Structure formats: C-alpha cells, structure tokens
C-alpha cells in the first residue's frame, strides 16, 4: 500500500497503560528496539501526554464531518489539524486561545499550555525521525497580507516548535496570491498537492494551510498479477467495478459482535500500521457512532492471528475541505470572527482566520519491498496434502469501510478515512 496524504495527527496517553494501545498482546512494541530509542525519555513522555486528547479530537472531528458529508468518502489527517491549530494557539490570547485548545480536546486545568506546545514539538520530531522506514513529512504554513508582519519572536518560536513557515502574500490581487500559494505548496509537496486554493477573497486577512505527506510500503506486498476486477457494492442500488488486490496470509484479526464489524490489521515496513474495518451490511452507522479511542483499544487488545484470503481495493482519491464550520461546532469560534485575539502573531489586534484549507490525497496499491516474507498462500499449497481440513477465511472489502492509519512508535493516529465509493474522487 502506497499512500500520499495531507493534514493532521493523534496520540495516546501518559499512563502506564496507554488508553489506545495499537499493538496486540503478542507483538507489543519494544521501545528499546524502536527507531526513536535514541530520544530522551523526557521527550517521549512529553509527546505521549498529548495522546488521549489528540485521540478524542480526531474521532470527534470524524463524527462532525461525517454528519456534514453523509454517504460520501471521507479522508483526513487529524494530526495535521491539531498541529496547525495548536501552533495558532501559540499566537492567540485570552478566550481565543482557550477556545482553540479546548476545541482540540485539551483540559487546561490538567495540562499547561507550555506542555501542549512542547508535546507537539517532540511529536513532530518523532514522526519525522530520519531513521524511520516510513516516509512522513508534516508541514504547516501561514500566509499573511504584507501589511501584517509577524513578530520576530513569534516567527522564531513557531519555526522552532512547529517547523512552521510564514509567508507574505498580496491578497488584494487574488490571482497572483493563488499562484504564489499554489506554487509554494506544490514545491513543498514535490508536486503531490496542486491547486490548494482557488477563488481567494481579496478581503482575506490570513490563510492557514497544513499538509502531511506519507508513503508506506506493505511489510508483505500484494502481488500485481493477483489483482483482478471485481464488484464493489456502494449501496443497494449502486455497484461499481474496481481492481481488487488479493493475498492469502496470516493477519491480525478480530470480529466485534457488538457493532458488528470485522477488523483486519496490516503492517507497513517501519512503525506504521493500518486497521481496516468492515461493518456488516447495514451497520455502517453503528460503526460511525461508536468509533472512539476506547473502541480501538478493545480491537487492539483482542486481535489474534488468523489465516485470511484478503481482497482489498486498489484505488486513489482526494478530498478538499474548508473545515471552519466543523471547528465552529467543536467550540473554536472566536478565531474566525472580529472577536479574535491573535495579537501574539503581529503584536496588534484586527487579525482573524478567514479560511482553513485541509487537502488530502490517498493512493493505495500493491507496492511492497522485494525482501518481504513469503505469503501463507505458498505455505498453504505446500501443506495442502497434509492438512486437507485447513481453509483460510475469505474477507472481501467490497462495500463501504473505515480505515485508520497509526504510527505505533508514538501511538499516533495519522489518518482516518471512510471509503464509500473507491471509484469516486471526492
């Protein structure tokens, strides 16, 4: 599975037992073997303090955006959204700052603002560690009109903490501003994200943009010659033809009878992993309503190895969100109005956020490494004569499903998606 994305993140707790553990009991992640083991323990703990809050934000955001776009593909990166708004809170004052941090699911009586910013700083560092076998690049930027010059202290601090870029743009010339912003983002993403913004309002006061680029290779790849066209049942009236990848192997598996749904977990090389969640027919709404960190914890603690003949779509999609309304519903309001206090950015009042752009792209294919281990399908052939009673379970993702991509080293939720129609580009 090769993936290209844009925007956000999510983590798990400071407690001895993390509230959303992503590894099953038989393969607990050993921090002594992690690519991040060279980091100081204090840095790791600072990062992990954010986990339960980021998890709550991620799943709440999913539920809100799902209500806005029912029966449509959804794909977003919660870490990118949390990251850029935590950065914005660094330049906010009074109730504007409080609303942002509480909207990101932080309890300010339990965690000091300084701890939040330090946690995000270490999180970004851990996720982009050069020793990682998974390529992940998180970037955020603020585009400001030329009359609003950021304070040097603010600029220095956010660059150090959040790796944030700030650029001056002439919003009074929308065509020129769009070209400047889109060219900049296209360069930063190596051409993966194009046309980030369009139809800019000449009255724009500030524009935030955040993206995450992720590319992972399956630990055990799908073989292209096994991919074949099969049916995907979008709903009771709509069926589409899609290329369906296939492999037979031993996978982490769990069937949740309470929702009900089937969970299959696959690994990438490195520390990234994906939960593929297939609800029973007619039970997608049950899954949407119950999806939270406690549910994922239950799944991860009950995974067991099972031989599965897995069919999974090969597809690509993109999504472009203006998430201001969604964030409003989560309590982040003043920063978008004339009541905004962002004087920590420029030193003067009168600045507000006019738009938040969140663009994502996802590509899923068979790609893997040449050194991947032999699949169970080949072993099954070898032993067919000895164990004639053995048959792998067939699981086919041929109807709407949920996918959750995590980084096990930090217990971070990198991406959340609901795939309703893999042929449709949202």
From TrEMBL:
Source taxon at top rank: Eukaryota
A Pfam family per the record: Serpin
Cellular component GO terms, alphabetical: extracellular space
Domain Serpin span(s) in chain numbering: 59-422
Alphabetically ordered keywords of this record: Glycoprotein, Protease inhibitor, Serine protease inhibitor, Signal
GO MF annotations, alphabetized: serine-type endopeptidase inhibitor activity
InterPro entries: Serpin_CS (IPR023795), Serpin_dom (IPR023796), Serpin_fam (IPR000215), Serpin_sf (IPR036186), Serpin_sf_1 (IPR042178), Serpin_sf_2 (IPR042185)
Matches recorded under SMART domains: SERPIN (SM00093)
Signal peptide: 1-16
Family listed: Belongs to the serpin family.
Classification via PANTHER family: ALPHA-1-ANTITRYPSIN, SERINE PROTEASE INHIBITOR, SERPIN
Protein name: Alpha-1-antitrypsin-like
């Amino acid at each position: 599975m090769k993936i290209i994305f844009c925007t956000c993140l999510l983590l798990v707790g400071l407690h001895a037992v993390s509230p959303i553990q992503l590894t099953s009991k038989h393969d607990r992640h050993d921090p002594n073997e992690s690519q991040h083991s060279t980091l100081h323990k204090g840095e790791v703990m600072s990062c992990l303090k954010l986990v339960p809050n980021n998890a709550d934000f991620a799943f709440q955001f999913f539920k809100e955006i799902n209500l806005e776009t029912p029966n449509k593909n959804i794909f977003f990166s919660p870490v990118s959204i949390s990251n850029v708004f935590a950065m914005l809170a660094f330049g906010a004052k009074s109730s504007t700052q409080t609303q942002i941090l509480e909207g990101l699911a932080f309890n300010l009586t339990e965690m000091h603002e300084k701890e939040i910013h330090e946690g995000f700083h270490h999180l970004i560092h851990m996720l982009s560690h050069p020793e990682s076998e998974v390529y992940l690049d998180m970037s955020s930027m603020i585009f400001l009109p030329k009359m609003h010059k950021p304070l040097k202290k603010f600029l220095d601090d956010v660059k150090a903490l959040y790796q944030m870029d700030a650029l001056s743009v002439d919003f009074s010339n929308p065509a020129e501003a769009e070209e400047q912003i889109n060219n900049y983002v296209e360069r930063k993403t190596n051409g993966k994200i194009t046309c980030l913004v369009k139809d800019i309002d000449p009255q724009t006061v500030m524009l935030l943009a955040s993206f995450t680029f992720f590319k992972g290779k399956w630990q055990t790849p799908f073989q292209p010659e096994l991919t074949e066209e099969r049916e995907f049942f979008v709903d009771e009236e709509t069926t589409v033809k899609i290329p369906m990848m296939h492999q037979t192997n031993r996978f982490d598996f769990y069937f949740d009878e309470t929702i009900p749904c089937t969970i299959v977990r696959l690994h990438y090389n490195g520390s990234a992993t994906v939960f593929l969640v297939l609800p029973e027919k007619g039970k997608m709404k049950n899954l949407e309503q119950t999806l939270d960190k406690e549910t994922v914890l239950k799944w991860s603690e009950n995974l067991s190895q099972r031989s599965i003949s897995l069919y999974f779509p090969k597809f690509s999609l993109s999504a472009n969100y203006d998430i201001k309304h969604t964030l409003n519903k989560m309590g982040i309001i003043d920063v978008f109005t004339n009541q905004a206090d962002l004087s920590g950015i420029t030193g003067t009042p009168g600045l507000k956020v006019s738009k938040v752009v969140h663009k994502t792209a996802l590509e899923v294919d068979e790609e893997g490494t040449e050194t991947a281990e032999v699949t169970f399908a080949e072993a099954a052939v070898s032993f067919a004569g000895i164990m004639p009673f053995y048959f792998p379970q067939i699981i086919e993702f041929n109807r709407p499903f949920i996918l959750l991509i995590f980084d096990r080293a930090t217990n971070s939720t990198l991406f959340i998606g609901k795939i309703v129609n893999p042929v449709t580009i949202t």
